User: Which sequence fits this backbone?
């Protein structure tokens, strides 16, 4: 693992001079290869486990945003916790600058979190309600950048609050979390992460607990940090529209597996996998209310006993025997696009993939077939 100490002079220095701009050809800052996480289930025989994440690989490049999108329970937050090393992986590898970064002790974990920081979903839950903003940020600065004192510490605090657009800093530094709005609390949480001067931010649904009116402000703040500090960002969300707005690439998860990935514009405007089609069409459309009635039939599968083959096949109107027996790999759809669907393979007996909503609408009596 490559580490280097950063003093407060770098924290308050010109951000654009610290790191070069993003380069698509440079190696990723953080890479996950074949991540798998199985949680044991108590009370069940035969050592049953929850297949929360299976064979997920992610590359995070500095100055770029990767969105991880999916419904609740798809494994998105588990991946964030695996990359933050808050929970150990069942198998797979985490590489930081190409070197195995598995933290095997307290000091190794401390070095890792100076480079990889996490922003949690609920800012009120992630901030200690009995401590002021000053205490929260001071503690983070001293942990990651040494024991700052006096004017040097005040300058670092002012710089952090200014960086997350909480100005003037004196108005916020001595407030408690309950005295701040939801958006202000999330900005403090982001400032706490920036105190480590990280190279990677893992943002686990950072706007889902906020009022709609202030969500865009937080996304614009993260975008500004990406551009000025060239930080790699993993943006986890169930809102695929915000992924299109904010992320360079989008990965779609279903039942612990990645089912589609590619540039955000293509994935959101021309979805290839049947599940991605349903995810995008799930937003209400006042001009086509009937489409809502043709939504996906069935429910997400049990991750204790996941179905064989493609995990989406019980709900897919195009599923054939191949889909029910073999797990599809990520197959090329177009330049830079991949989908885990046998319909894009050259296998015999592959399904013919079309519009899921049209298939549901054309087959009103198919619910029994899809749910079996």
Assistant:
């Amino acid at each position: 693992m490559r580490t280097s100490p950063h003093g407060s002079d770098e924290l308050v220095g010109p951000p654009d001079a610290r790191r070069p701009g993003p380069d698509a050809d440079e190696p990723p800052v953080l890479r996950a290869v074949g991540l798998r996480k199985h949680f044991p289930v108590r009370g069940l025989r035969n050592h049953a486990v929850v297949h929360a994440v299976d064979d997920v690989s992610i590359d995070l490049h500095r100055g770029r945003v990767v969105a991880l999108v999916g419904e609740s329970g798809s494994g998105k937050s588990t991946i964030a916790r695996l990359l933050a090393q808050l929970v150990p992986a069942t198998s797979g590898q985490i590489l930081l600058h190409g070197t195995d970064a598995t933290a095997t002790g307290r000091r190794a974990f401390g070095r890792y979190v100076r480079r990889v920081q996490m922003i949690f979903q609920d800012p009120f839950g992630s901030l200690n309600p009995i401590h002021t903003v000053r205490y929260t940020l001071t503690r983070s600065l001293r942990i990651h950048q040494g024991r700052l004192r006096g004017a040097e510490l005040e300058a670092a605090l002012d710089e952090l609050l200014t960086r997350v657009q909480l100005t003037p800093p004196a108005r916020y530094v001595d407030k408690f979390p309950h005295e701040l709005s939801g958006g202000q609390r999330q900005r403090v949480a982001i400032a706490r992460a920036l105190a480590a001067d990280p190279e990677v931010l893992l943002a686990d649904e950072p706007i889902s607990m906020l009022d709609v009116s202030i969500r865009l402000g937080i996304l614009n703040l993260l975008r500004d940090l990406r551009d000025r500090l060239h930080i790699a960002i993993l943006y986890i969300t169930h809102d695929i529209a915000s992924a299109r707005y904010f992320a360079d690439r989008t990965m779609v998860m279903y039942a612990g597996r990645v089912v589609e990935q590619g540039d955000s514009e293509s994935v959101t405007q021309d979805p290839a996998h049947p599940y991605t089609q349903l995810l995008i069409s799930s937003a209400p459309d006042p001009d086509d209310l009937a489409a809502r009635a043709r939504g996906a039939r069935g429910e997400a599968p049990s991750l204790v006993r996941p179905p064989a083959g493609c995990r989406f096949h019980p709900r897919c109107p195009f599923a054939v025997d191949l889909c029910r027996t073999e797990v599809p790999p990520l197959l090329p759809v177009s330049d830079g696009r991949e989908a885990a669907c046998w319909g894009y393979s050259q296998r015999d007996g592959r399904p013919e993939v079309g519009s899921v909503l049209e298939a549901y609408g054309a087959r009103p009596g198919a619910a029994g077939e899809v749910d079996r």
